[in-house]
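P.,

For your records, the input lines for the assembly:
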Amino acid sequence: MSGMNIQASDCLLIIDVQNDFCSAGSLAVPDAEAVLPLINEFIPQFDTVVMTQDWHPAGHSSFASSHPGKQAFETITLPYGEQTLWPDHCVQGSHGADFHPDLHTDGAQLIIRKGFRTAIDSYSAFYENDHSTTTGLTGYLQQRGIRRLFCVGLALDYCVRFSAVDARREGFDAVVLEKACRGIDLDGSNDTALAQMRDAGVVIAS
Ligand code: VGL
Ligand code: ZN
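Structure tokens returned:
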């Protein structure tokens, strides 16, 4: 990040740095804690800092446990399309849904909770997985004069990817700071995610 010229119209978007995605969490992302010192160093460099928090009701439709006979990491078809099934994670009010205790959350001005409707998952900070239900984030960023997003956090191949691609769809410039992200990497999904983000005009910065 040294040498990167951060402007007043830039926002740091910190995605899902929550206990369930860290070691000992129910959907642990390999090496997740490595992002913490980097993200904590970025926070004071930005005037605008937004965090997302995956926030599912018990019995959420993305949980394998809600579909008898199905296993975590299988794919099913829901009314809005294909949905990967996950272990129960980030249940509203649970310890797993809390931000990692070392994350400097005081520096954030907005926390977007997502995935709170039982019937729809939401990877992106902008749109739920039906790609039409909005979280309201675009309006917030526009009213704060934001033009470019720097995306960091978990997981690179799911929530970071969909957030960065949707940022482009919403007309923002988007940069993913790869060193401050970690992925789940199901069947090579980290590489697929990087390629898809680049195709969408996202800058991948290392
Ligand atoms: C995420 C899978 C399920 C993420 C959230 O934060 O990338 N992945 N829920
Ligand atoms: Zn989730």
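Two observations worth noting. The chain is about 20% helix and 20% strand. The chain has a mean pLDDT of 97.

Regards
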